[in-house]
Amino acid sequence: MEYFYLAVAILAFSIQFIFSKKYELMTKGGVKSGVWFSFVKGFIAVFLFLILSGFSIRVTASTISWALVYSVATVVCSICSILAINRGSVGKVTMFLLSGGLILPFLAGVLMWDEKLGFMKIIGTLIIFLAIIIQNIGSEKSKEGTFFFILCMVVFTANGLISVASKGAEISKGRVPTNNFLFVCGIFIFLISSAVLLVVHNDGFKLPRFQFRPIFIVPIVLYTAMNSTGNVFSLSAARVMDASVQFPILSAAIVVITAFLAYVFFKEKPGKKDLLSIGLNTLGILCFLFV
Asked: What pTM does this model have?
């Protein structure tokens, strides 16, 4: 059953990138748009998971701690992903995002959760880092440049922390039902996004009126639906699967599916370095399956 959960999570997480890219193309990116994206996402998630929890919420100190880490990382990842996608290809941003979601949980598993550190795990990690380096050597500075790379590294770290918090919340002694945890995360994301929105906008919550039109809200709603579905099933899988198995499979499948969707929906044809990097990244991920 855990592989069914993982399959649903893979599909949902892959599809969500279509809606984040669509939103970026419609709003032309920017910090305010990124924060507004997280704000609306958190608002929707609060009500969604309150309903799914049957209006019965249980919270522990462990839940609050992991939810806070998860939420801060989510807001940062969301903002920086949109900014990065506005400056480069969705495939490259996705590569950084997924690599962080694999490598940091791997390190956490070894250092925090006493998972065994085998030869193949080390080789897989090195191959993934090599894939990231190859993909960014000789990038067009005028198009992407240093700031794009910095954004990608922030996305790498933030998404890694999301994965760590997800796993930690599911195996901690103070664990609560998945919908309860995601409800608390939704509240934190909403509050953090509200605070950031006030800071980055001189007129408080005032935003361009066009962003309140349904056509601009729909991509956020659809993204939240896919992201929430992916989170529920990924967290369900995390309860019974080792991190060194779950996250490699999750990352490998999303790399392939997202690259395909980017080409189909946005005509983003991967270059030779992109293909080599995707191949190396997938090879590195596969190494984790033979430990």
From this structure: 0.80
